Amino acid sequence: MSDLPHGSGEDAAAVNSLRSAVMRLGRRLKHQRVDESLSPTEMSVLGTLARCGSATPGELARKEHVQPPSMTRIVALLEAKGLVRLEPHPDDRRQKVVSQTEEAEAMLEESRRKRNAWLAALAENLDEDEWAKLRAAAPVLEKLAHL
Q1: Minimum mean pLDDT among 3-12, 15-24, 67-76, 118-127: which range?
Q2: What is the rounded distance in angstroms from the CA atom of residue 64 to the CA atom of residue 34?
Q3: Closest alpha carbon to 64 in 89, 81, 87, 47
Q4: What is the pLDDT of residues 91-126, one digit of tens each?
Q5: What is the chain's alpha carbon radius of gyration, rounded to the nearest angstrom?
Q6: What is the per-residue burial (b if ≥16 Cβ within 10 Å, else e) of 2-31?
Q7: How far apart are the first and last CA of the chain?
Q8: What's the average model confidence in pLDDT over 9-27?
Q9: Within 13 Å, how many C-alpha atoms sit on residue 70's CB side?
Q10: Closest to 58 measured CA to CA, from 66, 48, 46, 47
Q11: Are 114 and 34 in contact (CB under 8 A)?
């Protein structure tokens, strides 16, 4: 893997191991859902609104890496479920601003609580040295997730 920044075989093995572990852990976390009626994409949009605040459907499409027509459909589904509301854009009457509802905030909080509890229970199998390494790695993983 010569396209790695550090390029060594050890780095390539670490990247491969990290990719595999993150994917497996992500899949397992997705199963710890509070509301089975929402797709992972719908949950992701709600998470983006919680992190970034209100946004236009176009802004959400960019943040979620989907096409604008797809985001329009997702927003319509979330609105029908009472999880987002559309309001007029303050500067451009042609656009709408999407905001999450209190119901969405409560559902996301419960989802976080459930997933955190599951992950904490899993982490009880780590020894103190492994826990220390995980605490040190968490900010780096967070940075990677948002690059």
Answers
A1: 3-12
A2: 21
A3: 47
A4: 888 889 999 999 999 999 998 899 999 999 999 999
A5: 19
A6: eeeeeeeeeeeeeeeeeeeeeeeeeeeeee
A7: 20
A8: 89
A9: 11
A10: 66
A11: yes
131: which 2 tokens?
């826990």
Question: Which pTM does this prediction carry?
Answer: 0.72
The total of other beta-carbon atoms located within 10 Å of residue 134's CB is 12
DSSP 43-109: HHHHHHHHHH--B-HHHHHHHHT--HHHHHHHHHHHHHTTSEEEEE-SS-TT-EEEEE-HHHHHHHH
Confidence of residue 1 (pLDDT cuts 50, 70, 90): very low
For residue 59, the number of C-alpha atoms closer than 13 Å in the C-beta half-sphere is 13
